[in-house]
């Protein structure tokens, strides 16, 4: 059975959300669990899926949650993000610096 974590919150009207997809280097259940925990706590996440098997995380976020904040949150787990997409368009995986 695949190690997949999912969560969901109530829906908001269409057109007011983003879909972010990340390829993440995860070698064990603890790795995917760490990503799961930070996404669960991130305000603005409507739903998400973390898969150890495919080494990916997909996030459905409210319009107010930017890609860069999700990327930075995942990076704080110490896991390397190798590819990222926002609404189907490839985006940088360079983690933004704190100002």
Automatic annotation (TrEMBL):
List, for all copies, the residue spans of the domain called HMA: 17-82
Output the CDD domains linked to this UniProt entry: HMA
Q: Where is the composition biased (Basic and acidic residues)?
A: 82-99
Q: Record keywords: RNA-binding included?
A: no
Region annotation Disordered: where it falls in the sequence: 78-99
The record's keywords, sorted A to Z, are: Chaperone, Copper, Copper transport, Ion transport, Metal-binding, Transport
Membership in a protein family: Belongs to the ATX1 family.
Protein name stated in the entry: Cytosolic copper metallochaperone
Organism equals: Podospora pseudocomata
């Amino acid at each position: 059975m695949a190690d997949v974590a999912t969560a969901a919150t109530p829906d908001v009207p269409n057109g007011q959300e983003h879909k972010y997809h990340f390829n993440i280097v995860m070698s064990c259940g603890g790795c995917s669990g760490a990503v799961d925990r930070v996404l669960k706590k991130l305000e603005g996440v409507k739903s998400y899926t973390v898969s150890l098997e495919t080494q990916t995380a997909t996030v459905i976020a409210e319009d107010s949650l930017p890609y860069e904040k999700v990327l930075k949150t995942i990076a704080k787990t110490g896991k390397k993000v190798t590819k990222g997409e926002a609404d189907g368009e490839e985006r940088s995986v360079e983690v933004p610096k704190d100002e």
